[in-house]
Amino acid sequence: MQPKVKAFFHEPTSTYSYVVCDAFSKAAAIIDPVLDFDPRAARTSTHSADQILQFVAGANLEVHWILETHAHADHLSAADYLKRGLGAFVGIGEGIRRVQATFQEVFNLGDDFAVDGSQFDRLFFEDERFALGELEVRVMNTPGHTNDSVSYVIGDAVFVGDTLFGADYGTARADFPGGDARKLFRSIQRIYGLPDATRLYLCHDYSPNDRKPNPLSTVAEQKAANVHVHAGVTEDEFVAMRERRDASLAMPNLIIPSIQVNIRAGALPLPESNGVSYLKAPLNLLGAT
Asked: 27 pairs with which residues across the strands?
């Protein structure tokens, strides 16, 4: 049994979110939803998430899960907003605990910030399986970009997060705290071990050469044409390329607000005495020195 998939593209961050459903029972999951954020005014909005809610209502879907492929560094998650609107559970890979511990120190969040993943409703382990109506969801650990990266295998479809991009753009960076290019290579090889016809749904498409954004690839296409890790590229070659390339990359525009929200399962920091939530900016810590 194969899932029905609806993609939503968030142009400001080149992010794809997905609604995945079992056509018979109408049970659905939302994967990697985006909370809009204007960095100039530090203002959030729910326009993109509301489009997903409108689609869900129009299709009479019952959303059971909001699934994160990892704690994103390039956009804020709308998981908390959607959870409050839908009553769904928020799930992420169990590696989020290591990511939380890392960024607890980066942002000096103190002991009041829990690093046990309790902000999420479910922490998934390798090869864990759960039902989505008549569909089965299997969790595949795919670390390397981050410690908590997972892919969700649903029928012939895999939602790979940032592990792979379009074949003409390559692969995720591996230089964030906790990232590891060797782990990333091995995670990609696990994906390449799936049947060639497997559909790969990407979290981002940066549309090189001004081509139209495309959320979908296949295992066969990636193995044949991925510019960073096509068939025949060795682990050492990939690691050397990835480390050289990562050293030239700037930090993502939204990494500072994104991480602080996303390690909280999409919730904003608690308001202070004036009723306003605040984000912290560590000076001279991230990026090149």
From this structure: 62
What ranges do the domains of the chain cover?
A: 4-258
* Amino acid 288: pLDDT: 63
The 10 Å Cβ neighbour count of residue 38 is 10
Question: Is 101 in a helix, a strand, or coil?
Answer: helix
The answer for residues whose C-beta is within 8 angstroms of residue 225's C-beta and 6 or more apart is: 167, 168
Helix (H, G, I), strand (E, B) or coil at 86: helix
CATH number of 4-258: 3.60.15.10
How does pLDDT run across 102-115, given as a tens digit for each residue?
999 999 999 999 99
Complete edge-to-edge strand list for the sheet that includes strand 34-38: 43-45, 34-38, 76-77
> In 3D, which of 119, 127, 145 has the Cα closest to residue 66?
119
Distance (Å, rounded) from C-alpha 7 to C-alpha 30? 10
Q: What contacts 153, CB < 8 A, 6 or more positions away?
A: 137, 138, 139, 140, 194
What is the average pLDDT score of the chain? Answer: 96
Q: How far apart are CA 36 and CA 38, in angstroms?
A: 7
